[in-house]
Every structure is written in C-alpha cells, then in structure tokens.
Amino acid sequence: MGPRILLLTLTLCLGCGGDPKSDPTGAQGATDGADSSDGTDGSDGSEGADSSDGSDGDSANPQPPYGEDLVQDGGFEDPSLSAWSLPEGCMTRSGTDWLSPPEGAAFLSGLPGNEVQDCNASQIIDLAAWDFDAAAIDAGAVAVDLEGWLAGSDVSGSFDDQIRLQVGFLDATGQLLGSLETLVGAGDAWALRGATGLLPAGTRQLDLRVWGRHRELPDNDSYADAIALRLRAVTAVSPGLTLAPLLQDFRTDAMRMAWETDGNLCWHGVQVADEGGSLVDSGVPVHTIAVDEQHYVHIAAPDGLSPGGAYDYRVASGDTVGDTETFRTAPAEDAPVRIAWLADNQEGYTRFRTHLEHLSARAPDLLFVPGDLVQDHFALNQWREWWWGSLVDTQAFGSRTPVLAARGNHDLHDPYAYAYVLLPGNELFYAFRYGPVFVVSLDSQIQPAHMPEPIDQRAFLEAALDSEEARSADFRVVAFHQAPYTNSVQNDTTGNQGARDNWVPVFVEKNVDMVIAGHFHSYQRGELDGVSYAIVGGGGSALLVDRYDFWDHMTILEQTWHYATMDVEDGRLHWQVWDLEDRLIDEMTLER
Fold it and tell me: Rounded to the nearest 10 degrees, how much is the dihedral formed by the CA atoms of 42, 44, 49, 54?
C-alpha cells in the first residue's frame, strides 16, 4: 500500500539552489525586495530574492552552503536515531496499516502501547560550523526554509496525537531569540508542512525540534519524515499587516498578543510603554506559525508588567507598524472585575459584531467565549474573518480587550484552531485567577475523565478547585462548550451526559458558584444543588426554536441572541444578560 498524501499549499524554495548575494548588508531596511521581471517576488512561490549561484571558485574563501539541507538523518533511516538528541519516546518504522514512508524506507514514529510518552527529537545546528556569515545574518539577509511530512492517525480536526515541527533561533549563549513553526500535523494522511522566515539578528544556532504529543491511548500516533532545513540569502521584505493584534492572556504581569502578516522575510517585534509614554522595543522573542505562504501568525508576550496596569503598544513587522492601542493586564486579586460571556457566534458574524459594538461601550476586562467560534473548522477564511477579523475590526475590541475561549464542536482540534486560538497550558483545558474570580476552562469535545493522566479532565478540575487560588477566590466559575442541562435541544439530547456524570458532582463538592456553557443556541439559566448554570449560546448563530421541560431547575429560557456581563466586587457577583438590541433580559446576584 502506498503512502496516503495530502499536499498543502505552502511552497518553499528548498531545492532552488539560492546562494549568497555578493553584498548581503542592509537588507532589513528594504521594503520592496528584489522583484523579478514580471513583477512577482519569485516564480517558485518563495519570498524575497535569491542570487544566481554565489560561487566564486576561491577555495581560500569557502562560501556558506546556501541551499544545502542542514538536517542530519532527516529521513529517519537510522533506527538508532543517533543524529537526533534525546529522541525519547521515539522509534523508526517502515509503515503502519494505513501509512507508508513518503520518502525512503522509514519514518519517525511515537511508541506503541499504553504508556503515555511524547516523542521528542531535536538537533542543534551550529551556523559557524557551516561557515555561515554572522554579518549577513545580523544584517537581515539570511532566511530559513523548513519543511517536513507530518501525519497522525485520524481525520483532521478530531482529537488525537499531534505532531509539530519547529525551529528555534538561538544566540551565542543559547538564549532564544524567536522561533518558527509549521502548522501541526493532523489526519491519517501525509501532509507536507512548511515554514520560511528571516533569521533574527544575533542568531548563531538553530534548535530544530520534532515533537509528537501523545494525547490519546493506545499508541502515540505521531509521524514525521523527510525533515529538511536550508538557509538562503535574501533581501528582506516588509509584509502587509493582514490581521491586527488579538490579545489572548489572563496574567497580571504579561500580555500575550498575536497578529498576522502576508509575509515573513522580516524581523518582528512589539513596542510597549506605560499609557501615554514613549514606545520602546520590548525585546521579547516572537514565535511565528506559518499557516500558508500568505498567512503568518506572530505571537509575543511582553512581561514584567503590573497588575491592572494600562499599557500602550504596537506591533512591527519590518517597516510595517500597526496602530497604537492600549491594554490592561489582569487586575489584582482583590480588585473589581467585569468579564463578558457569549458563545456560538459561528456563521452569525454580523450579529457577533453587533454584540462586540455593545460590549465595547461596556468595557469589560475580559471576554470569554465557551466554544463554536467558527462554523467550519477546516475553513481558513472563517478563522481569519468571522472570528479574529470580527474581534479586531469592531472598534478594535480584541486589540484592547483580552479574549479567551474553550473549544467547541465546530472548532474541534483543527490545525487552524491551534494557529488562531492560543489557549494556555496544554491548549485543551486550563485554569486561572482573574481578580476575585477563579475560572476553570474545560474541553467538552474530549472525554471528561479517565483519559491518560496528562489529560484527565476530572482530575485536573479537582486539583484546580483545590488550589489556594481557587479556595481564596470570592467566586469559582467553570466554563466549557456543551452544557450539562438544556431545555432547548439539538441532536436529540438533554445535555452533555459526560459532563453530568463526571463534572457536576465535582461542582457540588468543590463549591463551584457558576457553570457557563454554550452549544444550545439560546439563553438559559437555573440553579441546582447550590450551583448556578447558564447557557450563553446566542453569540450570533441560528437560534434553536423548540422548548422542552426536561429539567425543572432550568427555569429561564430566552430564544434570542445575547451576551452576558459578570461584575464582581466586594464579595458580590452581578450577572446581567443583554439582547441584540442591547436591552436587559435577565439578571441575578450571587453573594460570596
């Protein structure tokens, strides 16, 4: 059986023999690159401009090996994996029941069996040992091209083991200057993933990593083959800023932000200052995810900030600079806070934007979206335009207000979901303190409990609620997508049975105050065993119209689009819900 192959659209100049320019200096300041005669930036689809051959025939002055693959045993033909450092949890194999090597006779694989173990393999590439010119690198005249075949064992978007390919840029002391990553591998067919980018000034080593994350038993079905990394001489090109920064953080001393450009042959950074001050380069490393050859997501997290502090910032990619915006870090633990809630915006992006206009006037500290951010997880335009674009284009809401989320059944675990939604921790479930509120975010799209220990959500939930941060909080809130109880249904269900069986008993035992979910496109609220349950599924998608009496404790049901605000101050939680015309339709107050 031959290899199943899915070829993605990211085309790299890995075999075009790009060699050094005769004068690779001053490239970072260029804004127009070096165009070909027909006005394009390279007939092969790569960015920038390569020189012809760079060969001067002078053996006393060896030329850097531009265009040469720098990876040792990138095809994993050596069963011992001796070229790779610490290949823990890894092995080579010649095939599976559904997969054959795309090249050669073997590929990298995670280990079979029920032991939960990631596959990690890495190589350090010393650029001086390859005679690469430090001056050219520091002038912004050297780019890296990375590619590899990646695969898993299930369809793209489902939850299973995950394979990643990335390269870190290190200075002479081993300090990380930035990093570049392809989309994650997903699906039971080989996908060619690629990434290209400019080496940051000061880069002296490359830290190449293949990481197969084991997430579901049995077997670690993470596969990689034909990993290649090449450098080429280029002229830097300032890209277009295609998506303004989206804030995604809950910390009091840092703020993670991401923005998108249509090219990556430049240096990226974030400038930060106290509100009203002079912006200066934060100096933080920037991590870039290559979605395809026209979409690059850049992630940075300036730190050393103060709780509840107001900061001006702007992002820069080459000579392209974003607008100056202002954000606030998470408030101190005893400070008042306003958190906004809505879910299931999906295809209803015009209504979603209306909600955001109203929310902008209410100035929440944080927006939390419990799932279904898009309608079709495999549609790039929905992640870019319906989700991210709505957030940042509507009065710059998402560029000023942090946005966090839980994954929904329409989002799933698509590679795009990991590029455009930056969840903390293991990127599945997480917990955080936000002022006097402790929030646990769960993933109702995977088993609620009894998975391998690293992803046993019931164990995580119990441990999070037992933490000092949770016990000292005025209120404890749990959020996830598929609500445990509903009186308005879809797909013939009365609510998520797994959540009822595995999580609801913990909510009662650990004194959870409120559970907030979505999935059932309506507004619902009720109280059971001291826990308030709310469904905020009116973020924009088509509403459910049927009403039932499955659960007596779910006493409120409004079939209308809506959002909610949660104000917490002085031991009191005030919950209010507003419809699409911004009219109040429900409210309640909880006491500490």
Answer: -140
